[in-house]
Design goal:
The chain is built from 15 helices and no strands. With 403 residues, it is an all-alpha fold.
């Protein structure tokens, strides 16, 4: 399953344009479609009288739709490239936000979020990762690292922007303004920034099989299971961190600061991933990152002092940052770039579903286990099991993969 370099490298001028465009469109798409919602949830429920559980369920349903639509998007990406797909996704996202902003009923609001979810399947990380993986070839880790570092600032930029808008406008007007920002930045950003010939994937000197055969393989199933378990635990911990810290006696404000420091840890993890990738085999770094995630989650459940919890939160953020890039490179590290779009979409789908269920599941576990500390320890145990499963995620014929 060794892969030789492509006869001609993709145009580097085009590749740089693609990277710059995606950095701008991803930070905007994540900020508007994902991070604005938690800021506006309170305003939405207060103004409409809709139950917060129903409003949150509509948003979660959008995430589930994104996971399902993403699989079909991946197949199109492999054949035709990302320009038309991501541009269409931006148009659809703008339309969805207008529907959400003007929804007269909870049912219409829910339909709006399902439409937004379909758009997210075409504009968020998986299609962007597919674009950079093909255009950058052997240099993809550096490009993916750059993209995730920039997009990781989406909450930093758009949470306060949304709050500022909401201080002067109602939630409907705020979403209409955000829809305009999304349209102005991402529609031309995708239509112009991603134009150009879709590079051919590297020639493979040994047949790796079709996408269907890979999806049914033991290695892919183990990879998907390990990623889903780890993703579920990581997202659940983010959701439960503030109540965990207030349970420890910290104020809500202090807890929010500690949560924010976890974001700084994600930056450290993403910066460190390229060096880790150069120095470790696929199996070693996969198991190492998942096991480290389990360890840092466990620290959050065991430590009680503010200083120790700050360190643990930063370390947990670091492993989340590493995990993002591990997931982005998992397919190419094992099976090359031929079926990257659809395989990454299939791999991402259960992780996205797990993320959508994490807020509800975290609260349910805390109720059943009698607090957030035992809940976090249970999530750490789940992630430790994921590390064991991850060891089986390497194809039997090859333990590393090179372009």
């Amino acid at each position: 399953m060794t892969v030789a370099a492509a006869p001609a490298a993709p145009d580097q001028t085009v590749a740089r344009r693609v990277l710059i465009s995606l950095c701008v469109t991803e930070i905007t798409s994540w900020g508007v479609l994902y991070y604005a919602f938690p800021v506006l949830t309170g305003d939405i429920t207060a103004a409409t009288g809709w139950p917060v559980t129903a409003v949150t369920a509509a948003f979660s349903l959008g995430q589930i739709t994104a996971a399902v639509v993403g699989i079909a998007v991946g197949r199109v990406l492999d054949r035709r490239g990302p320009c038309a797909v991501m541009t269409t996704g931006s148009v659809l996202a703008t339309t969805a936000l207008v529907l959400i902003a003007t929804a007269p009923t909870l049912a219409a609001f829910t339909v709006g979020w399902m439409l937004a979810g379909a758009a997210m399947g075409g504009v968020l990380y998986p299609p962007a990762f597919a674009a950079l993986t093909r255009w950058y070839g052997p240099g993809r880790v550096r490009a993916l690292t750059t993209l995730t570092l920039v997009a990781g600032l989406a909450s930093t930029v758009f949470a306060p922007t949304t709050a500022l808008l909401a201080a002067h406008l109602d939630w409907r007007q705020t979403y209409l303004v955000l829809a305009g920002i999304l349209a102005v930045i991402t529609i031309p950003g995708h239509a112009w920034g991603l134009r150009g010939p879709w590079p051919a994937h590297p020639h493979q000197s040994r047949k790796v099989g079709g996408a269907g055969a890979i999806r049914r393989s033991r290695a892919f199933l183990a990879l998907a299971l390990a990623a889903t378990m780890t993703g579920f635990a990581a997202y659940a911990v983010v959701i439960t961190l503030v109540p965990l810290l207030t349970e420890r006696g910290l104020s809500t404000t202090t807890a929010a600061v500690v949560l924010g420091l976890g974001g700084a840890g994600q930056v450290l993890g993403r910066l460190g991933y390229p060096a880790l990738a150069r120095r470790t085999s696929v199996r070693t770094r996969t198991v190492l990152i998942v096991a480290a995630t389990a360890a840092t989650i466990a620290l959050l459940g065991l430590l009680t002092t503010l200083a120790a919890l700050v360190v643990a939160a930063v370390l947990a953020g670091t492993t989340r940052g590493l995990f993002t890039l591990l997931q982005a490179t998992a397919i190419t590290d094992r099976w090359g770039t031929v079926h990257y779009g659809q395989l990454t979409a299939v791999l991402s789908a259960p992780v996205t579903l797990a993320a959508a269920l994490a807020p509800w599941a975290g609260a349910a576990l805390a109720t059943r286990l009698g607090g957030y500390a035992p809940t976090v320890l249970a999530l750490a145990a789940l992630t430790a099991l994921a590390a064991v499963v991850a060891a089986a995620s390497i194809p039997r014929t090859e333990t590393t993969h090179h372009d």
